[in-house]
Amino acid sequence: MSIRFSFVVLTTVAIIGSCTTNTQERREKFEPDDGECILFIGQDLTALGGLDDYADGYLDYFPAPGGFTMYTNLRPGDTAFGYTYKGLDGITTTDNWASGDCNMQLQIEDEDFKYSALAIGLQFVNNDSATAAGVHDSLIIGLGNWINGLGKRPVFLRIGYEFDAPDWNFYKEYHFKNAFRRIRDMYDSMQIENIAYVWHSKGWGTSIDELAEWYPGDEYVDWCAYTHFGWGVGGKTMIDFAREHNKPLFIAEATPQIFDGDTTITQDCFLDNPEQAKKAWNEWFIPFFKVIEDNPDVVKAISYINVDWPAQPMWEANPFFMHVDSRLHLDSQIKANWIKKTSKREYLKASPELFDHLWETK
User: Fold this and answer.
1) pLDDT tens string 229-252
2) Cβ atoms of 179 and 132 closer than 8 Å
């Protein structure tokens, strides 16, 4: 039986199996207990560190996080910033599309990442209709086989992340939803068990009703997610949506930005500047942690982007990121504050017990 025809049977099974309400007795895939939050760090080899050739990143100054974030794509032949995508870039080869070197396999094979989950940002810019129509099925299968080979390592797959961002992703609701559903149906038919499917909004400017137009359905989505940059209050809409649909929420991208009062110009936020670092802690980090602590029943994972943004060609002239160096070790007080906050038992970091804990069915 072909994969395409097997989708119907397997999707029916998935729908039946997803009808139970998400309570503390029945949680979504890899959802920890209320009050627990998986700590992820992203989003390239330099930012993460911990490797022989990348030794000045997060893992060189802090305990290993509960997960790490990287990116890949379904856009072979497409070009951006002078780079031509092959499709599945950054999985088993070291690739750089102007936003830092990526190679997930390097990290998977390194002892420092042995007990960390993986969050994958899977984009298909300019390819949402092609993905939905099956043009990239061979790439989808290749990614699925690689993920399946990771065994018990939990993988959080952010399909078409920031779907509601027309200025940079250009997705259409109909094609996006069908692409999301197709990928999940294919992986269900391949019996891949170590994936949680994440539906990730840009985090501002989209109403509850508009989000509903983009939603693939409760039977397809395991986690909701949003991006938390300078406009952090925008996440409330997605938090409300997640709570309404009984889904855990992943703050899947977070980096400090300080706005001047409009949404186009930010103040400098370089954490190697003590004055700016102090302002960032008071005006961004404290409110960020408050979102987590005020919503322990919903916010179950966060991913902090630990990057020198303007050092990367993709961001050097971007008005939102050219003002930011978010590397946490640059300021001694930021570093100490971060360690104090994330050392609490509520923040799940790498440990030999982590994977078993996330696989538990309550």
Assistant:
1) 875 556 889 999 999 999 999 999
2) yes
